[in-house]
C-alpha cells in the first residue's frame, strides 16, 4: 500500500528481511569476521559445555526409557560460523567417552540459509573429524517455509513423521533475526503496525550492511481484527495479550512458532528446544513497550518474544525452563515439547546445574568486568577464570600481556597449570574468518617460560601458516629454541635468517659466533 508517496509494508514482509537475507548470502562466513555480527556470547566454550551437558542428559533420559537404537537428531538453526557446533560436539564426545554408559546414537545437523556457509563448514578443518565419524551433517533450511531436512553429507532426507526420537533444536541468536509481526494492543483492540522505510540518499552505492544501518523505519497503525478472530491459528496467545496488556507494542513470533511446529512434525510433534537470545519470557517486559528499534551489527536484529513461544507450547503440554533470576545480556531457555516432559529428569537437572545455578549469561557478565580489570588480577584468578571459561582462546588473548607480566613471580604449580591450559586451549581452538595468530602468542609466552620445545612447536606453526614475512623476534626465538634442543643446524638457519632482517642484532650475532665455534 502506498500513502503520501511512501510504500507501507506489513512488518514481516518489509524489505528489511530481504536485505537481511542478501547480507548473509553475499558474505557467507565472512559476516562473522572480526565480530561484525556478534557470535562470542552464544558460541563460546562455556555455552557449548552447558548445551553438551543438556544434550547428554537428554540422551540419558531417552536411554532410560528404552530408546537406545534410533538416533537423536540435534538440529542447530542458523549455525552461522560453526563455532557453537564445534564446542558442543567436542564437549559432548568427551562426556560420552568419560561416562561409558549405553546411550542412543546421535547426529548433529548444522543448518543455515546461505549455501556459502555450508560450503565453508564442509571445508573447515575443525569440523571434518566429526563429519568423518558420522556424527555431524549439514543442511540448508529455510525457517520460514521448509518442511523437511535434506542432509548434504549422508544424503538422508528427513520428512514429516520420519524421526522415531524427539527432535532436539538449538536456536542461538536466531529468533531475533527472522521475520516477526509487529502488533499494537490498546483498550482491548489490536492493531497491525505497518512500516515505511526511509532509505539513505546514497543507498545505490552503499553495501547491504550500510543500507541496513542507515534505514529509518516509520510505523503506521491499522486496525487488525483478523488476529482477534477465533480462526487465527495463534488466537489464544493474542487473546491473552488483549486481556493483559494495554498501550503495548508486541513483536509476535508467528514465523518462529510455525518453524517449531514444522520441525516438531518431523517427530510426531515432539521436540526439545535449547535457545539463547536477546529475548524476553516475562510478560512484564512487554507491558507498555515502545516501537522496536532495529539493532544493527552488520545485519539487524530485534528482541525475541520468548513469552509467546512458552505460552503457546505450554498450552499444548510442554514444560519450559528459564532462569528465575533476571538475565543481563543473554536469556537462555529450554522448552520440552515432549510426551511426559517431567519424566526427563537428566535434561532438567542439566539445565538447573549449567544455566540456572550459574550459566552463560552469568559468565559473560563476569567476563565484561574482568576484561576491564586484567591489570589488577593475579595469576590464580586468571587461571581460575580461564578454566571456568573452558580454556577459551579469547580469554587467553586478552590476558596474555598480564600473564607475561606475572610470570617472574609465578609458582611452579602455576606455570604447570598455564602450560596445560595452553595445550587444552589449542585442542579446543576453532579458527574464525578473521586473522589472529594464536600460535604466535602461545609460542612467545612459552618461550618466556623457558619451555623451548613447546615454544618451537607453536612458533613454527605460526611461521608456516602466515602469509606475511617473518619478523626477527620469531626467528630469533626459534633459533634459541633450536639451540636449547641441541638442534644446531636449525639454530644456525634461524640465526642467519634473523641477521638477514637485522644484520646488527647483537644477540643473534653472539649466537652465530657460538654456533660457528661449535
Structure overview:
The chain has three domains: 8-21 and 179-251, no CATH class; 35-178 and 256-357, Rossmann fold (3-Layer(aba) Sandwich); 364-516, Tetratricopeptide repeat domain (Serine Threonine Protein Phosphatase 5, Tetratricopeptide repeat, Alpha Horseshoe). 45% of the residues lie in helices and 18% in strands. It has helices at residues 15-27, 40-43, 45-64, 83-99, 115-123, 128-132, 208-214, 235-244, 254-264, 306-314, 345-356, 360-371, 379-388, 393-406, 412-427, 438-448, 452-465, 472-484, 488-501, 506-517; strands at 2-3, 6-7, 9-10, 72-77, 106-112, 136-140, 149-150, 157-158, 167-172, 181-186, 189-198, 216-223, 248-252, 271-277, 279-280, 295-297, 299-301, 304-305, 319-322, 331-337. Mean pLDDT is 91; it is low at 1-5.
Q: How many strands, what sense, and barrel or not for the largest sheet?
A: 7 strands, mixed
Radius of gyration over C-alpha positions, nearest whole angstrom: 27 Å
Give the fraction of residues assigned to helices.
Answer: 40-55%
Class of secondary structure makeup: alpha/beta
Query: What CATH first level of the largest domain would be assigned?
Result: Alpha Beta
**Superfamily (CATH H level) name of the largest domain:** Vaccinia Virus protein VP39
Q: Just name the CATH architecture of the largest domain.
A: 3-Layer(aba) Sandwich
Average the pLDDT over all residues and give the rounded result.
Answer: 91
> What is the 3D shape?
globular
Strand content: 15-25%
DSSP, total strands: 20
Domain count: the total is 3
Q: What is CATH's topology name of the largest domain?
A: Rossmann fold
Q: What is the overall number of helices? A: 20
- Low-pLDDT segments: 1-5
Q: Which strands sit side by side, in order, in the main sheet?
A: 6-5-4-9-14-20-19
Instruction: Give the end-to-end Cα distance, rounded to a whole number of Å.
Output: 87 Å
Amino acid at each position: 500500500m502506498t500513502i503520501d508517496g511512501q510504500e507501507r509494508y506489513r512488518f514481516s514482509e518489509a524489505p528489511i528481511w530481504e536485505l537481511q537475507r542478501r547480507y548473509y548470502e553475499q558474505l557467507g562466513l565472512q559476516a562473522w569476521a572480526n565480530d561484525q555480527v556478534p557470535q562470542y556470547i552464544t558460541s563460546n566454550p562455556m555455552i557449548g559445555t552447558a548445551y553438551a551437558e543438556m544434550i547428554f542428559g537428554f540422551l540419558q533420559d531417552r536411554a532410560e526409557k528404552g530408546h537406545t537404537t534410533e538416533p537423536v537428531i540435534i538440529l542447530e538453526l542458523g549455525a552461522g560460523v560453526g563455532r557453537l557446533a564445534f564446542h558442543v560436539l567436542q564437549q559432548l564426545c568427551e562426556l560420552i567417552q568419560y561416562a561409558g554408559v549405553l546411550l542412543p546414537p546421535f547426529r548433529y545437523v548444522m543448518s543455515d540459509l546461505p549455501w556459502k556457509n555450508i560450503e565453508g563448514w564442509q571445508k573447515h578443518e575443525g569440523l571434518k573429524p566429526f563429519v568423518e565419524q558420522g556424527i555431524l551433517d549439514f543442511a540448508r533450511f529455510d525457517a520460514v517455509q521448509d518442511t523437511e531436512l535434506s542432509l548434504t553429507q549422508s544424503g538422508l532426507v528427513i520428512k514429516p513423521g520420519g524421526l522415531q526420537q524427539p527432535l532436539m533444536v538449538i536456536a542461538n541468536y536466531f529468533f531475533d533475526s527472522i521475520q516477526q509481526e509487529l502488533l499494537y494492543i490498546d483498550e482491548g483492540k489490536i492493531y497491525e503496525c505497518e512500516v515505511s522505510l526511509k532509505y539513505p540518499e546514497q543507498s545505490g552505492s552503499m553495501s547491504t550492511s550500510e543500507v541496513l544501518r542507515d534505514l529509518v523505519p516509520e510505523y503506521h497503525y491499522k486496525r487488525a481484527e483478523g488476529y482477534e478472530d477465533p480462526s487465527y491459528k495463534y488466537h489464544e496467545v493474542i487473546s491473552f495479550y488483549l486481556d493483559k496488556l494495554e498501550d503495548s507494542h508486541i513483536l509476535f513470533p508467528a514465523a518462529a512458532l510455525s518453524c517449531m511446529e514444522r520441525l516438531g512434525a518431523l517427530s510426531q510433534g515432539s521436540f526439545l528446544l535449547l535457545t539463547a537470545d536477546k529475548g524476553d519470557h516475562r510478560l512484564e517486559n512487554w507491558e507498555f513497550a515502545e516501537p522496536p528499534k532495529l539493532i544493527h551489527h552488520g545485519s539487524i536484529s530485534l528482541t525475541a518474544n520468548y513469552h509467546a513461544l512458552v505460552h503457546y507450547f505450554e498450552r499444548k503440554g510442554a514444560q519450559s525452563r528459564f532462569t528465575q533470576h533476571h538475565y543481563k545480556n543473554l536469556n537462555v531457555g529450554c522448552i520440552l515439547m515432549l510426551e511426559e516432559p517431567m519424566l526427563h529428569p537428566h535434561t532438567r537437572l542439566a539445565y538447573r546445574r549449567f544455566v540456572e545455578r550459574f550459566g552463560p549469561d552469568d559468565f559473560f557478565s563476569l567476563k565484561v568486568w574482568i576484561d576491564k580489570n586484567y591489570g589488577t588480577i593475579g595469576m590464580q584468578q586468571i587461571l581460575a577464570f580461564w578454566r571456568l571459561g573452558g580454556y577459551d582462546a579469547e580469554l587467553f588473548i586478552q590476558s596474555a600481556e598480564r600473564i607475561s607480566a606475572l610470570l617472574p613471580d609465578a609458582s611452579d604449580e602455576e606455570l604447570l597449570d598455564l602450560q596445560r591450559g595452553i595445550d587444552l586451549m589449542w585442542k579446543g581452538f576453532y579458527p574464525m574468518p578473521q586473522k589472529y595468530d594464536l600460535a604466535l602468542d602461545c609460542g612467545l609466552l612459552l618461550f618466556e617460560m623457558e619451555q623451548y620445545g613447546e615454544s618451537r612447536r607453536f612458533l613454527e606453526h605460526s611461521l608456516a601458516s602466515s602469509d606475511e614475512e617473518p619478523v626477527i623476534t620469531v626467528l630469533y626465538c626459534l633459533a634459541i629454541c633450536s639451540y636449547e634442543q641441541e638442534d644446531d643446524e636449525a639454530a644456525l638457519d634461524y640465526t642467519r635468517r634473523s641477521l638477514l632482517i637485522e644484520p646488527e642484532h647483537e644477540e643473534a650475532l653472539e649466537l652465530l659466533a657460538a654456533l660457528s665455534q661449535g
